[in-house]
Amino acid sequence: MLTRLEVDGFKNLVDTKIDFGAFTCIAGENGTGKSNVFDAIRFLSLLADRSLLDAAQEVRGVHGERTGDPRDLFWNGYAALNPRVRFAAEMIVPSEVEDDFGRPTTPTITFLRYELSLGYQAPRGSEKIGRLTLLEESLQHINLGDAPRRIPFPHNVNRFRKTVLKGHRSGKAFISTTIEDNQPVIRIHQDGGSRGQPKPSAAYRAPATVVSTVTSADDPTILTARREMQSWRRLALEPSALRTSDRYVDPRAMDANGRHLPATLFRVALGDESTDPEGVYARVSGRLSDLAGVRVRSLRVQEDDTRELLTIQLREASGLELPARSLSEGTLRFLALCVLLEDPTVTGLICMEEPENGIHPANLEAMVRLVEDLAVDPTDAPGVDNPFRQVIINTHSPGIVQLARPDDLLFADTAIRAAPDGSNAHTLRLRPMAETWRAKQPNEMPVTKLDILPYLTTPPGVQISLESA
Fold first, then answer.
1. Interhelix angle for 329-342 vs 277-288, to 10°?
2. Domain range enclosing 250
3. Which of 314, 346, 378 finishes a domain?
4. Are 188 and 254 within one domain?
5. Residue 323 burial by Cβ neighbours in a 10 Å radius (0-12, 13-18, 19+)
């Protein structure tokens, strides 16, 4: 669970500090840079799994497309002489993970702060583009005694906080950086504290972060932090992927684009001996029926042994049977989220852009309640019936803003800052609603209903009356 994100120098995120709860809705007009928050989270997740170069090429450039030039990631990257970006992520990590060899391991402590600084090296010799350089990396524990201050969102202390925060650590960080001969040197410190010598490595020529290189249970806390960051995903559900049937040999976990939806529902429904398949199908079809205009009596995964295919079949109230691929794009996306809601193996952080796309305004409330329900309930202990999931969405829909709880809202606009070359540039600004838990944090600039009234008001002249239609 990502409880706090700090970003400085990434795209239009400058000195950005965001506290997250179980569910967060970032709302604002198009062009403010809301998606850059998702890009920063995605970039950190990629850096826990891939090289610096590969991670940079997977993130959208300043114009929305993927490019190979790392300067696209930096604020004012093409004008700055020495661009630099800094990240910090405070997270609650799982209490047990498996290493790359399938061995279970337990972290020393489950409340951690990860910091990372990257620079840019201009191309040399035959190189055509520059590269990212690792300037600083650290992984530190957060004392559990500081939890009341570091986890400010409303939650139950005994059932939630004391369940997810475990362990103890004193002394050195798990990863630290020192400067030797004017160059950064990164060291891994063993979980045992003083036992064993720290493992140093030169950072300047490193092709990847230290976290991404830890694959075994020898460094359990670093590995657990890596697993947590790897679980941060960005859902981009594509209708073509959602409409695809699955072969019997296909993976039974849904991709970020929605592929393998039938296989996922089939796995969840069959589950183990204690799972009631009909109950799973009934809950999914019942939730799908929350949408106005969708008259689903039942659904199930059809097994075609001849072609060895799995397909989701629906039965309408009229008795007509049809495949789920015949549903509208918005309804298909809603169905995919209904299936995720039933899957206890889906944990970690889910980012989703504009969940209202393709949804009729009459169904906005059903969509908002669904994405809220996907997130863990922080008033209860996480478990099979309350998966440890976190959800962040962004939107420009006034309808979503009106339906979301004030505690969950962050309003996005832009502020003007002076760039290093003296020019002015627009940067993202996120502000909480007044009298909510975020508004109590230092240096916040909360908004009121009066502030956001222009955003929630339909522009004059767009109303259509029956007389003028």
1. 140
2. 237-346
3. 346
4. no
5. middle
